[in-house]
Amino acid sequence: MRRCVGVDLGGTTVKLGIVGVNGAVFDKWEIPTRTENNGLNIFPDIAASIREHVSEEELKSPEFAGVGMGVPGPVQEDGYTEKLVNLHMKDINVADLLSGLLGKVEVKACNDADAAALGELWMGAGKGYHSLMFITLGTGVGGGLVLDDKVVPGTRGMAGEIGHMTVNPEEYEKCNCGNHGCLEQYASATGIVNVMKRTLAECDDPSCLRGLETFSCKDVLDAAKAGDIVADRSVRTSMDYLALAMANIAMLADPEIFVIGGGVSRAGQYLLDCIEPVFARLTPLSEKKADIVIASLMNDAGLYGAAKLVL
């Protein structure tokens, strides 16, 4: 069976797996991401790990399709990336680098959120669709766009960076990117906590979170789901901004389905109930709306998508 190696390169760990053309995973493992010395060891470590699990004979076999890789930063179609901030690397072609270390095996690379989008389309919540917008809600907000079964990276690999889409130009606090009013400031895990703190400060209504020195995004979501009025109001404010961003994406790219992943997505149906009516109101041009669902592959989405790049 034709197979490949999928690589999901993260800031802490690298997830790798041998994946077949039908989506079967024959082996899966992890190695640490060694970011010291400007990431000098990262790609040699990946190459060595692949060689430990795939023989030289198989690497050269016609049945071996190559290596697909998702990396945490903007990647152009040829594998070039200007900067991988969390890995302390810049101005490199990650595909060419890994290919050279593996004896010129074919390597294709894309942004990690793009890989997750492709993975969800192929084997996850987007299976059966052909165009998909994947949104990941974690510490930050990321996204990946697939149209007609093909990842859309953009000219500089920046397509899908919806976390820094301006959704509130009146915002006075600054985003980490230097802008004001980015989606990430409201719909990320950090943003949801910050919006909750602001909501508590602006009202006197009782809340189970009032008076706590610290609380997490999960605490806010759990409180909202349990009926805490202030938490529910706060989360709906955050999700209103997300729905606005999604409506703008729908007007531009018109995906068949939005798939929402990342740690925040564990709130499940409650999150969808917040988003769907606002999204519907903001997309009046079509009666048939894009589907909105929760991701199903979770931590394996990037691995599947990376594999699909070469299969």
Reading the helices and strands in chain order gives EEEHHHEEEHEHEEEHHHHEHEH
Query: Would you tell me the overall average pLDDT?
Result: 94
CA gyration radius, whole angstroms: 20 Å
> Can you tell me the CATH class of the largest domain?
Alpha Beta
Strands side by side in the biggest sheet: 3-2-1-4-7
Q: What is the total number of structural domains?
A: 2
How many DSSP-defined strands? Answer: 12
Q: What's the CATH topology name of the largest domain?
A: Nucleotidyltransferase, domain 5
Principal-axis shape: globular
Question: What are the SSEs and their pairings?
Answer:
Blueprint: E1 3-9, E2 13-20, E3 25-32, H1 36-39, H2 42-53, H3 56-59, E4 64-71, E5 80-84, E6 89-93, H4 94-101, E7 107-111, H5 112-123, E8 132-137, E9 141-147, E10 150-151, H6 184-187, H7 189-202, H8 217-225, H9 229-253, E11 257-261, H10 269-282, E12 291-294, H11 301-310
Parallel strand pairs: 1-4, 4-7, 8-11, 11-12
Antiparallel strand pairs: 1-2, 2-3, 5-6, 8-9, 9-10
